[in-house]
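queue> holo job accepted (fructose -6-phosphate)
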Amino acid sequence: MCGIVGYIGTGAVQNILLNGLKNLEYRGYDSAGLALNDNAGIKVYKASGKLNNLVDLLSHKNNTANTFKGIGHIRWATHGKPTVENAHPHLSNDEKIVLVHNGIIENYQELKDKLQAKGYTFHSKTDTETAVLLIEDEYKQTKNLEQAVINAVKQLKGAFAFCIMHQDEPDKIIAVRNHAPLILGQGHSGNFIASDIPALIGQASQSIYLDDRELAIVTQNNITIKTFEGAVKIKPMTLIDMKAESISRRGYPHFMLKEIMEQPDIMRNLLSSSLSAKDAPITFSGLDADKLFSHVTKLEIIACGTSLNAARVAKALFERLCRLPVEVTAASEYIYKTNLTDENTLCIGISQSGETADTITAVRQAKEAGAKVLVLTNRANSSIIRYADASLPLMAGIEISVAATKSYTAQLMVLYLLAVMLAEKSNKITPAYAETIKNTLLTLPALTEQVLDLSEQAKALAAKYKNATDFIYMARGINLATAAEGALKLKEISYINAVDYAAGELKHGPIALLDENMPVLAVLPKDSVVFSKVLSNCEEAKARRAPLIALTTESAVLPENIFDDIIRLPDAPELVTPMLCAPFLQLFAYETACALGREVDQPRNLAKSVTVE
Ligand code: F6R
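queue> job finished
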């Protein structure tokens, strides 16, 4: 959600910044901009729309010689439309200070009123411009960029990561972090600043993560980190171990397809690090499970979007296997609910990026209320880790496509392992049953490969239904979350209005929507205890002429002439069917989006890593 970069050094500044932004494009693509500093001063270039528009604009300019530093931005619009005026970098009124921002300044209106009263002119509708003008105002007194920045940021409320340059202090870029991620990189040609590691790949070899309320004075040869109070912080550099290959499509037409296809291997990795054999105990390296789970009488799982759907599966698992009450809350709603969190609560925060502002806020509040916090994330150094008593990695590798796929099944796998481990430790399941489930988990990578072999069927289904304007996904029990996740995937990348319902709820209202133009996809794996009930709901839907798709399993016996299309996944115990249904539904959404010519990896209005509340 907005990406910022900065570079000072002897390398090709413009190219380095554009490459960095390219690798951060998953964070937003409403507009892009660069500010470049050469011997003649600072020049700003901005374009609305995707980064390519900025690249086109710059191809007509000659900026490569003598440029020694610069900052850049890609935007996911919050305040103000995605126009050139609202694109970053933003300039001070004297055009000497330039700034890029990721986050939201909550008290911008109040500050804007004060600055306007002092005679400052605003050229954009953004909250960001307030920050650059406030720094300009402070600079008038201090004549020192670092001090002006410190004075200004102390007046800001909200989340912000900034890169700031001043024409009269050409030797430095100032980087600031408060509740929005920011990383500093060191390479042979100079020093770097970025919202996320992919922007540094191939350029910097080492990195430092800034913490909240810290700023860095970055010169070509030096990085000095200070707190907002001015105290110098010494932080060790760590090696950047992400490879360029991990951010390439590796021959696939889209990152989404590549990431879908990676799922069996990710499952294998997760299994091999936690479960060596069906009769072996489940362990997570570095996790003191006995300590974490002692005195826990209830679980509270907090997440957003796809991660929230993983949480819904987890609720069914932990309740069924561990007999523990589980509450699942959308992180954005957590602050509004009556808080029953206490020291006997284990709060599990799930976030692929580890940077989702809603989830971070909710997890922090749960911790403040006394809960122990366990975090599941795919990004080991992400912000959410700071609030965790313990964390478990998803080991899915970087996920670039905005639609989450491999991180979802990785989350599920970790949650399955965790639930079985806890159930075993607390003697809530028999050793024989534990062994059966573990054995099933060990078969999942191979079964998932069989699901992914159905891509031609997904394509044919997509071709048939791509012109639907609406879609209903229905299920019961543990696969309610599967229906929700399938519908979420379809709507976010194909823009078809897909809605998930508990199958039994259809007759209480939504059935009024059904006719020959409303396809219904029913999730009904055979072993399911709810199989026959979902089947009855399918009959009801067919009686209203809805085109009907069954997502079922190989040995399921279905009545003749009800279903227009039947997709058969490999047979598996009902408990693990969410793991097998999800990859097929991902493929179906992917193929539908492709058939409609959508921008699969960068769907409109969305961004990965939602760093605003
Ligand atoms: C959907 C999707 C989003 C994210 C949500 C939470 O495909 O990607 O719904 O799941 O924004 O993101 P994380 O898991 O990073 O907290």
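queue> The longest strand covers residues 97-105.
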